Amino acid sequence: MEKITKFQARFNEWLKYSDVKQTELAKAANVSKQCISDYKSGKSEPSIDTLFLLCRYLDVSADYLLGLED
Predict the structure, then answer these.
(1) Which of 14, 26, 64, 65 is deepest in the core (most CB within 10 A)?
(2) pLDDT for 15-41, tens place per residue?
(3) Domains in the chain, ordered, with CATH?
(4) Rounded CA gap, 25 and 69, in Å?
(5) Average pLDDT of the residues of the chain
(6) What is the pLDDT, as a whole number, of residue 39?
(7) What integer pLDDT is reported at residue 21 of this predicted model?
(8) How far apart are CA 26 and CA 67, in angstroms?
(9) Is 17 exposed, middle or buried (0-12, 13-18, 19+ CB in 10 A)?
């Protein structure tokens, strides 16, 4: 059984909350739709630069997504 990371859980939660399409988010973060799927499934995590773009587009703090604040 794979452990869900704090980033994965919060990223999925925020995507659901924001109702953003993966295609839109991928374009805004300059990554493929597959990368977004990998972030959602926990197969990978974004680089610092990509995290910045994701946070900016989703209007959420990196500290929240990383589990440093609630």
Answers:
(1) 65
(2) 999 989 999 999 999 999 999 999 999
(3) 6-65 (1.10.260.40)
(4) 23
(5) 94
(6) 97
(7) 93
(8) 22
(9) exposed
- Fill in the amino acid letter for 7: F
Residue 11 region by backbone torsions, left for phi larger than 0, else alpha for psi between -120 and 50, else beta: alpha
Q: What is the DSSP letter of 4?
A: P
The model's pTM: 0.90
- Six-digit token string for 44: 């990978």
What is the identity of the amino acid at 27? K
Which ranges of the chain does DSSP label H, i.e. alpha helix?
Answer: 6-18, 22-28, 33-41, 48-58, 62-65
Residue type at 63 in one-letter notation = D
Query: Is the separation of the CB atoms in 35 and 44 below 8 Å?
Result: yes
Tokens at residue 22, please?
């993966």
